[in-house]
Amino acid sequence: MVLGTTSCRATAPLVMMMMMMMMAATETAAVPKGSKTVQLLLDPSALVPSRIFRPLQNVSISPWTYNTSSDSSLLMPALSEARCLLRGCLNLEGKEDLSLESRPIMHQVLVLRRVRAAGAGHSYHYHLESRLIAVGCTCVKPVVQVQQ
């Protein structure tokens, strides 16, 4: 279900948090029995502030927007995905050039899906899944094959 669009500024922290959670989940799954699990605490004051810059999707020759979908069975229920705004690409005058093509940039992400445990009532476990999502758009030359 598509909820709307979000800005790059709102998406970046969400993506970073999801990546950290996925890394922690895969490392936790590989921990041998008898090992000690410790909580990871991040100090926000130690983070380096990022420079203010224009969002790439607004200055690209292949502009895009973000659509956010929702799935309540995922650990992070909202997932943003890029959608190319043009079939072609913008030329120097800012007009669409259909001799080039806008294509999505695909990236594989890991998500955790909440699954009800068999015969355990209200007990759940998490299943690690892989998804291929569009994270932006790029401009490419179309592939033309001449048939003889």
Q: What attributes characterize this protein structure?
A:
148 residues; alpha+beta; Cystine Knot Cytokines, subunit B; three-stranded antiparallel sheet; two-stranded antiparallel ribbon; 2 helices; 18% helix; disordered N terminus; cytokine; secreted; signal
Describe the structure.
This protein starts with a strand and ends in an 8-residue tail after the last strand. The strands form three sheets. It has a three-stranded antiparallel sheet with strand order 1-2-3, with no helix packed on it. It is elongated. It is α+β, with helices and mostly antiparallel strands. The relative contact order is 0.20. A hairpin with a 5-residue loop joins strand 4 and strand 5. The model is unreliable at 1-8 (pLDDT under 50). It has a domain at 56-147: Ribbon (Cystine Knot Cytokines, subunit B). The protein contains two helices and seven strands. It has helices at residues 8-29, 56-59, and strands at residues 2-4, 64-70, 78-84, 89-90, 96-97, 101-116, 124-140. The longest helix has 22 residues, at 8-29.
How is this fold's topology laid out?
Elements: E1 2-4, H1 8-29, H2 56-59, E2 64-70, E3 78-84, E4 89-90, E5 96-97, E6 101-116, E7 124-140
Antiparallel strand pairs: 1-2, 2-3, 4-5, 6-7
Pfam families: IL17
Main location: secreted
Family: Belongs to the IL-17 family.
